[in-house]
Amino acid sequence: MRIIYLISFLLFPLLSCAQIANKSISVVSSYAVDQNSSWTSGMLQKQKFQPFKQNSKVNIGYNKDAAVWCRFIVKNINTSQSTKTWLCFNNNHIDSLSLYDGRLIKTIGDRTVGQSPFIETLAFELNLQPGEEKLLWVRVKKETSFLDFSYSLEDQAYLESKSSQKTALTSFFIGMVFLLLMINGILFFMTKNKLYGYYIGYSVLTVFYTAITTNFAKHVLFPEFRFFSEGRVYTGALWYIALSIFLGYFLKLKENQPVKHKLIIVLGGINFLLILTSISLLVFYKGFEFRYFFVLGYVVFLASIVVLFLAALTHLKIEKTQAIYALLAFAPQFVWGACLILKTFEIIPKSLGDNWMLFISLYEVFLFGYVLSRNYIDIFLKNNELMQQVIFEKESSLRAISEVQLRERRNIANIIHDNVGSKIAHIIHLFDMKNAELAKRTINELAEDIREISHKILPKALDEGALISSLQSQISSLNAGLTDAKIELFCYDFPDKIDEKWIYDLYLIALEVINNAIKHGNAELITIELYKYPKNYHFQFTDDGLGFDLQKTSKGFGLENIEKRVNYYKGNFEISSVKNEGTIIQINIPSNR
Predict the structure, then answer these.
(1) Is 257 helix (H, G, I), strand (E, B) or coil?
(2) How far is CA 270 from CA 144, 205, 245, 258, 273, in A?
(3) Could you tell me if 132 and 85 are in contact, meaning their C-beta atoms sit under 8 angstroms apart?
(4) How far is 553 from 431, CA to CA, in rounded Å?
């Protein structure tokens, strides 16, 4: 933002060059309105003209077919040397401006091929000999629109300086906007976020409207095009519709303020309908009275500005930062648009000029470009943080798996060392003592022990989907070795054999829960219940042990590992526990059949 303010501060002096008045020329001017554009040059002497001075504005308001004739008596006061000056008209959007200098006729304007040498103004060159006095006539014509203008006599150096500065400033603005469009276009294709698309559409129309309003389009880009007067009105209306849609999406009005959102859409639709209707009438019925179209269009435009401004104020209570950005961007636009409308209806004497429009648009596009880019960076950083968390979770899961594997291998090593290892050593000793009969019996016992160990580690029946029989066998073995605790298993519509990948994990989870209840909970009764529903399997583990406070005690490594296993199969894991009242664990896993 500091860069934007710095650029604006550096460029502002370019718009305030000192005006040099040519004191060697005197001018007397007057004007008359030809309501039907029917006067000829021979009829001018009979008309009544009203005087007006340099830089004072002639405003005839809305006109349909009128033309304004201006009479200038210009004299070179200096009797010793000739002089050159430029007769300038400050409205760049006059359809045609014709200068009658004796038999010489020059025509420039929006609807003509002729072009002013300066982007800043419509200007005619005047050359006066020493002491020479000239009578000049200028016909000003603008069809079906509001018409106002003023004139002045300007020095060429001043006009060249102003024009070059305005051309440079407008070119800089358009170039920077296209740079922002390129950046946000990349962000749009990366994120598929509609907000970037709306910003691009709004910014493109801003470029078109600014280029036409500042006369850059006519003077630099398309000098042969003859319909910039209409293009300015229609592009401005479309630009504001696009701005309304963009701000509505930016402030999330559809979710937060649905009434204002609908109102903005309706007002935008009315404006768009007015554009289509007026274009059709201009093509097929040029004699139509467009006054009411202009009035209605400005009223809808003003209503839309008010609604958007109120929506931004209301949004301060919902999302303060976004609302402040919208107000900061929209407040200058609100002032400029309001002044334009009030000036059009002659409620105030003067509106903000085209240069203000240029700066406001530059500021607005830069601000939203900055906000959207910053939002993307914030989202990128948050996503990066989430990715780091995912990586951390994966690393934690790997560590957990490693710890489980290490613990299981240690258990297997202890079983083999305590049972298998000692019996093998005893068998070798029996063979050394040549007691083959006893050695054979011991080998049979060892084979039985190995089958039992294998069954404890992972029953062979699980490969056939026999979860219930595997659990029953293991629970029977555990109950045989328990003195102060009992394990019960109940099944409700649960199939004897199931074809699901998670049965191995469920078997190990059941053993883990039983171990936790006995070892940590000191439970006396552990109940396992298995249910089968049409779309899912339900498992419930209940014990009457010590329990724990879930708010104060973490789940621990074992329970977290169980939850991760269940989540892997898109299941649901819930645990409830009350201190000294036991624990209930419930698991739901969707059926794939």
Answers:
(1) coil
(2) 21, 19, 14, 18, 5
(3) no
(4) 56
Element (H, E) at 162: helix 156-191
Q: What is the pLDDT of residues 70-123, one digit of tens each?
A: 999 999 998 889 999 999 998 888 888 999 988 889 999 888 888 889 988 999
Handedness of CA 250, 254, 255, 257 (dihedral sign): positive
Stretch (H or E) spanning 313: helix 291-315
Answer yes or no: pTM beyond 0.70.
no
pLDDT at 27: 92
What's the farthest any 2 CA atoms get from each other in the chain? 151
Whole-angstrom distance, CA of residue 452 vs CA of residue 462? 15
How far are the Cα atoms of 38, 63, 86, 102 from residue 69, in angstroms, in the given order? 11, 14, 18, 15
Helix 354-415 vs helix 156-191: crossing angle, to nearest 10: 20
Is 176 strand, coil or helix?
Answer: helix
End-to-end CA gap in the chain: 59
How many helices (H) and strands (E) the chain has is answered by: 15, 16
In angstroms, what CA-CA distances link 419 with 44, 447, 467, 475, 529? 128, 11, 27, 21, 33
pLDDT of residue 5: 39
Give the residue among 548, 413, 542 at the shortest CA–CA distance from 487.
Answer: 542
Residue 400: Cβ within 10 Å count: 15
Quick one: which of 97, 83, 89, 95 has its CA closest to 131?
Answer: 83
Query: Do residues 448 and 479 lie in contact, with contact meaning Cβ atoms separated by under 8 Å?
Result: no
Who contacts 344 (Cβ-Cβ below 8 Å, separation ≥6)? 146, 298, 351
pLDDT tens digits along 167-196 = 888 888 888 788 877 877 887 787 788 887
Under the banding of pLDDT at 50, 70 and 90, the label for residue 56 is confident
Write b or e for each residue in 8-36: b if 16 or more Cβ atoms lie within 10 A of its Cβ, otherwise e: eeebeebeeeeeeebebbebebebebbee
**Non-local CB neighbours of 406 within 8 Å, separated by 6+ positions:** none
C-alpha separations of 99 from 35, 131, 295 in Å? 19, 21, 32
Nearest to 591 by CA among 549, 538, 552: 538
Query: What DSSP letter does each residue of 511-572 carry, written as one string?
Result: HHHHHHHHHTT--SEEEEEEEE-SSEEEEEEEE-S----TTTS--HHHHHHHHHHHHHTT-E
Mean pLDDT of 324-352: 69
Structure tokens at 297: 């269009």
Q: Rounded CA gap, 301 and 69, in Å?
A: 33
CA nearest 268: which of 246, 234, 242? 242
Residue of 127, 93, 120 whose CA lies nearest to 108: 93
How far is Cα 247 from Cα 168, in angstroms, rounded to an integer? Answer: 30
Query: Cα angle vertex 31, ends 27, 35, to 5°?
Result: 165
Count the residues in the chain.
Answer: 593
